[in-house]
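Hi F.,

I've been meaning to write this up properly since the lab meeting, where we talked about keeping a consistent format for the predictions we share between groups. The idea is simple: the sequence comes first, exactly as it goes in, then the structure tokens exactly as they come out, then a line or two of notes. No screenshots and no reformatting. I'm using this chain as the first example so we have something concrete to point to.
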Amino acid sequence: MFDAEAPRRLARELRHAPDRLLHGWRRADLKRRLRARPPASVLFVCHGNICRSPFAEVLARRLLAERRAGIGLCSAGFFGPGRPAPETAIEAARAHGVDLGPHRSQLLTPALVRGADLILVMDARQRTAVAAQFGRHGPDVAVLGDLDPERVTRRAIRDPVEQPREVFDASYARIARCVRALVEAIAPQA
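Output, unedited:
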């Protein structure tokens, strides 16, 4: 019997094969660069700045404060300033000790991009967009998912907006792993 989904599954597997195969190398390279030159400021970027990047910012702020590391942090998105995080995002973030209630989205601007030593995006398309729109590229713009200490099937951190709570939980768990790896690389415990 013919499995109509098989060609699509195979295409997805092949499309994301580089993500799986290069993850260990990308992770080691990014950690090496962060340790060699820790950033004084980090900008987290996602599509709308209402779910992923604000969660990463607030969690990083808390973890770096615990280590008394004075690193500037902010987050922004490509559109829609002034929007609050969705209620599902707020609830899911709370499970990680992160309060997104006060958050309002911020538009990614040239000043924010210029002011960041390190820009962490949620997927490779956003990395390309930062380069195209703001002229910022190279080693100071990285995909946050490259820091994941676990094996990955995809480089991108899934956008949970308008998805069920389980998707938020999975995305936030992955972001938390990546942010912990970031903090360990740029502000190791003495």
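Notes:
Residues 73 and 136 are 18 Å apart (CA to CA).
The two ends are 61 Å apart (CA to CA).

If this format works for you, I'll send the rest the same way.

G.
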